[in-house]
Amino acid sequence: MRTSLVALSLLLAAVVLPAQAVKASWVKSGAPAAPASLPSRLIAAALSYLGVPYVHAGVTRDGMDCSGLVYRVFFDTVGESLSRGVEGLFRAAEPAAYPLHLGDLVFFDTSEKAPPSEPTHVGIYIGGGKIVHAASEGSRTGVIVSSLSDPYYHDRLIGARRVLPWRDPVLAVTLTDATTSSVEIEPFASGENVTVQVYNHMTGGGPVSFSLQRDGREVLSRWIVPGGQKPAEVSFTADRGTWSVHVSRIFKGRTLVDVGFSVVE
Q1: For this structure, is 56 an active site residue?
Q2: Of 213, 206, 257, 259, which Cα lies nearest the Cα of 239?
């Protein structure tokens, strides 16, 4: 009798429980994390060195100087070997237009000359008006975060240089017969003029409805007529925030494509 009850219980479990439920305890939960953008990786790499002591000409976690920090962070993140000297870094790259972007190199003249003119110190801009750098003097030394509004650095600021390979300010969107949705990994930089190019690879043509939203609010809406070879183009000035492009049929309202992207410093 006991054997029959056990068999009946197993039979009911097999009937009531779907196969997926039996395997659930063996399946890892959670979707894989999306890869971080290049600016995010660079800033994370720079901040990982916080607390490393200042050592002249150092480029390791045992100690580093200001240009050594820049060299190590860009080599590890971008694979680019930058100059090991402050002046070489300053001369090698083009001046950065304001507003500053994540990853910009910010230069200072820490000598007592007035006005400041020769680059003797460098930091990496991490957003929010702050830099991470390896300080050799002052109340805090080693790799630290400082504010550009700090009188010491504000009065000694020379300028900034841009070496991070930001993406081109163009977002290409292709319409097909199937609805598509995607999120761009690499962000655009704030203050740039971004152009959205919409191509038509559907079986039919004609106008479609284009909507541009920032932080959930529509900032631009119009009808466009995209072509297969020549796209319809919409340009806008990129301010910081979470953006999305929504294209749909005009009369039926069916969504054709949704593309999300971000704009950061």
Answers
A1: no
A2: 213
Q: Looking at 56, 101, 121, 246, which residue is catalytic? A: 121
Per-domain residue ranges for the chain? 38-162, 170-264
CA distance 58 to 85: 12
pTM to 2 decimals?
A: 0.80
CATH number of the domain located at residue range(s) 170-264 in this protein? 2.60.40.10
Instruction: Give the long-range contacts of residues 130-133, CB within 8 A, separation 24 or more.
Output: 131/106, 132/43, 132/46, 132/47, 132/49, 132/50, 132/69, 133/66, 133/69
Q: Which two tokens stand for residue 14?
A: 């097999």
pLDDT tens digits for 141-167? 999 999 999 999 999 999 999 998 889
For the chain, which residues score pLDDT lower than 70? 1-34
> Looking at 101, 133, 154, 201, which residue is catalytic?
133
Are 245 and 256 a contacting pair, CB within 8 Å? no
* Residue in 103, 93, 98 with CA at minimum distance from that of residue 192: 98
What tokens appear for 91 in the block?
């001369």
Q: Active site includes 201?
A: no
CB 121 within 8 A of CB 107: yes
The domain defined by 38-162 folds into endopeptidase fold (from Nostoc punctiforme) (3.90.1720)
Dihedrals phi, psi of 137, to nearest 5 degrees? -150, 170
154 is catalytic: no
Q: 171 by DSSP, 3-state: which? A: strand
